[in-house]
Every structure is written in C-alpha cells, then in structure tokens.
Amino acid sequence: MNLCIDKRPERIKLAVSTHNQDQLIQELLNKDVEELYIWLGRELYGTPAFPPSPRQLSQLAHSWMEKKGDDLRALICNDKNVVQLCNAETDGYDPELVTAVADLIASLVIGVSPFTVSVLLIKVGLRRFCADIWEV
Q: Which pLDDT value is given to residue 17?
C-alpha cells in the first residue's frame, strides 16, 4: 500500500496504487465464492488470538451480506454504468465492473474491503442479485 501524505500535516491520505488494486482484484477473482465468504468473514471478525473456524467466518459473512443486501441493491442495481457493464459481452469477470461496484459501495461497507464485497456479488451473480430491480 502506498502512503500519500498531503502537504498539510493534519491531513493524511492512504491510497492504494493502481498496480496494487489490480493485484488485489485479481487475487479476489481467483477465489471461489465460499473462499470469498471466508475472506469477508475474516475482514469482519478481525484478527483475534483465537480465530473462529472457516465455517463460522462464512456464516458471519453470509449474515452480514443479508443485512446489507437491500442497501447494496439500492446502490448497485440502479446505477446505469453497472447495468451497461453487465450487459457488455466480456470474457470472464471484468475488473472495470469490479471497480465500478466497489466505488459505489465503498461508503456503505466501512470496515471491509469494497473490492471483496464487489467480487463476491459479481461471482454470485449481479443479474441474480438485481433480479427484482432489473426484472430479469
């Protein structure tokens, strides 16, 4: 992670370089859905001395996603850029779509990586996730 420091000492900004962002997206895209739920569970749970089992982490992430579902849908499924990217014919998962979704949800998913949530939603299927709104 690159640390970008503003010239004013009271303002410190952290920024992930594009290279690191691309690496993170690729690493997440290489995981299957269950691995992503466990990864999200770890982000939610933190790093305690006695970590929960992968099953518990997955359950925590499923529960969190269910609680956030309506708010996530409202942000993602009504966005014209997301709809356009979903309708574009691409091979595999489009990093541009991952970034677009992550940008939309960043303020909603404080405490976890918006990229993790974005990739998880895309792998689960945005058409399925947005079915009620998109009437697919």
A: 57
